[in-house]
Structure formats: C-alpha cells, structure tokens
Amino acid sequence: MPTDFDFWHIEQMIGALADDERQRLAALAAPLRDRLLAERPADARVLRREQGAAARAQAEDAAMEDHVRRVVDAAPPLTGGSGRG
Q1: How far apart are CA 9 and CA 17, in angstroms?
Q2: Predicted confidence (pLDDT) per residue in 54-78, tens digit
Q3: What's the DSSP call for residue 76?
Q4: In whole angstroms, what is the distance from residue 41 CA to residue 43 CA?
C-alpha cells in the first residue's frame, strides 16, 4: 500500500519534470519573445516590471519559508498530550 511519502515523492518527481519542460519551452520561445519585445518597448517595460515583482515575491516566499523552518526547528518537541495544560 502506498504511503503519504510515496505520493509526496511522486508529486516531487512530477514537479521536477514539469520544471524541466517549462525551462525547455522558455528557452525555445526566448528568441521570439526577445524580437517581439524589441519591437514593442512599452511591453518590454511592463514585462520587466512584472518580472521584478515576481522576483520580489519569490524572495519574500523564500524568506518566509526560512523563517517558518527556523521557528519549527526551535520549537520544543510535541508531547502527545491533550494540550490542556
């Protein structure tokens, strides 16, 4: 019988494959995107602004994940009690 870890591992592998495919498609589309953006400078500015916002959001997410990881690591172990003091 598959465990939760088995399902998690499968999801991680699927995610890695999807990331690889996304990167491959982005590399294929890059020359066309660059040419179109060169023809439309206003769109290029909007894209740079959106990419900057996305990068900031990713950095904030990474910082929050790091913070949560540190808090969880510093927390005392669970005792398995009822939690009623």
Answers
A1: 12
A2: 999 999 999 999 999 999 889 888 7
A3: P
A4: 5
Q: What is the DSSP code (8-state) at residue 85?
A: -
Residue in 49, 22, 25 with CA at minimum distance from that of residue 37: 49
Give me the residue label for tokens 């020359």: 31
| DSSP reduced 3-state for 77 | coil
The CB density around residue 49, as the number of other CB atoms within 10 Å, is 10
Q: pLDDT for 27-58, tens place per residue?
A: 999 998 888 888 988 888 888 899 999 999 99
Structure tokens at 33: 């995107």
Only one residue has tokens 């023809």, namely: 39
Distance CA 52, CA 44 (A): 12
> How confident is the model at residue 80, as a pLDDT?
64
